[in-house]
Amino acid sequence: MTRTIWDSSLGKKTVMAVSGIVMLLYLVAHMIGNLKIFFGPEEINHYAHWLRTMGGPVLHYEWALWLVRIVLVVAVVAHATSAYQLSRRDIRARPSKYVHKKPSASYATRTMRWGGIILGLFIVWHILDLTTGTVHPGGYEHLHPYQNIIDTFSTWYGNVIYIVAVVALGFHVQHGFWSAAQTLGVGSRSRDRVLKTVGTALAVLLTLGFVAVPVGVMTGLVS
Amino acid sequence: MKLTLRVWRQKNADAEGAMSTYEVDGISQDMSFLEMLDTLNEELIVKGEDPVAFDHDCREGICGACSLVINGDAHGPERTTTCQLHMRSFQDGDTIDIEPWRASAFPVIKDLVVDRTAFDRIIQAGGYITAPTGAAPEAHSTPVPKPDADFAFEHAECIGCGACVAACPNGAAMLFTSAKINHLNVLPQGAPERETRVLDMVAQMDDEGFGGCTLTGECATACPKGIPLFSITSMNKEWLRANRKVAR
Ligand code: HEM
Ligand code: SF4
Ligand code: FES
After folding, report:
1. What CATH code would you report for B117-247?
2. How would you classify residue B71: left for phi > 0, otherwise alpha for psi between -120 and 50, otherwise beta?
């Protein structure tokens, strides 16, 4: 049965929708956690430490964190793979364009594809910057996110990359949340207003919440 | 009215096609779009040229044979079929671009005529009910709740024209397939094949090389019968339900 689901275009869409919602839930938590930076270095550094001890004493140090990381990697890989395969199918299904072009015909599709590619690249860069420290501009120190974040957002490119990605995320969630509801069959005429409003609210909330951090550093509110 | 037409001409399935320009004069506002093309073809025949091939049958908006992408819109600027589109929707002196449905699952046969048998094969995969033929049964013996009857009727309006595929940036046949599935799946008469219908028709749709849905909504905007975009949501729900049922 797994095979038939993965082979079907509707099955791949279902994988996209479920993995998208998993990432969405994670991002809401991540955004809220990031806002701790506005309450000083102890608060956010302690939070970084808690992320490693959460689930204890049942779970060993970092086990819960690794569990979250594994779920996220599975979600990102599943999402990107089905996005790629579905997009390939879509492009193959419409090889020749109309001579008479209509503007805006595929606005949502195009923003989902380009937005998705931007997000995929950003995820790689973001991990190399603030998780492993590989491309970090300052002296990266493990478990000291306060200073690490300030260093990242003290470079112009750090700010540009991050803000572009967060805006792309806003657009992606705005169309994605509502789309996922249709894919999973929970949309309807009577629920449409609510679903569109929730999707837009989530998109705005995530964008503002994530953008607050670089803006805080740039304006000197966080230093 | 005097019009400039730019029409897709293609000798056969294997030939390269291109837009050709024609002038037509003496077009009345009351003519249908297809009558306007008839006028062009009469002139072409008199001149000894090959007339423009296009599909049509009932010319009253019920059979789904007519097609044509007119100025980038499937079935043209009004929400109706090309045969029910009238020249009053255009202005004297207009240039009108006329192209065939574009999708790899709908290859061009000649000029503006495309091969839509992929739709027939989707129907063959499950767009029917298994019932003994013979005299019609007593209608009142199978009660159907009013909301279900309305839902079925809304979807039964699909005439299988393929405008949804032509308008979709992904060449997807989701709206057509969902209309056909929902029409039967909601009714008691369609219940015995409820699961196999949706699974088989969706599988056939994929096999025919149609694209996937990215929920741009272009299909529902183009549909002359007003099949709603939520039709696809209902199909998705049926498909997920059928997979759960079959797994059990
Ligand atoms: C690896 C980076 C990503 C790529 C390449 C990507 C790509 C895409 C594409 C192309 C689509 C539309 C696909 C289609 O309908 O055919 C899509 C839909 C979606 N994306 Fe992403 N995306 C990425 C990251 C994310 C993230 C971080 C989230 C979390 C908020 C997310 C949530 C969604 C949702 C909810 C949908 C709607 C699924 C549906 O239509 O049912 N995506 N993504
Ligand atoms: S859903 Fe609408 S556009 Fe598509 S085939 Fe049916 S009637 Fe035509
Ligand atoms: S010719 Fe029958 S619907 Fe247009």
Report:
1. 1.10.1060.10
2. left
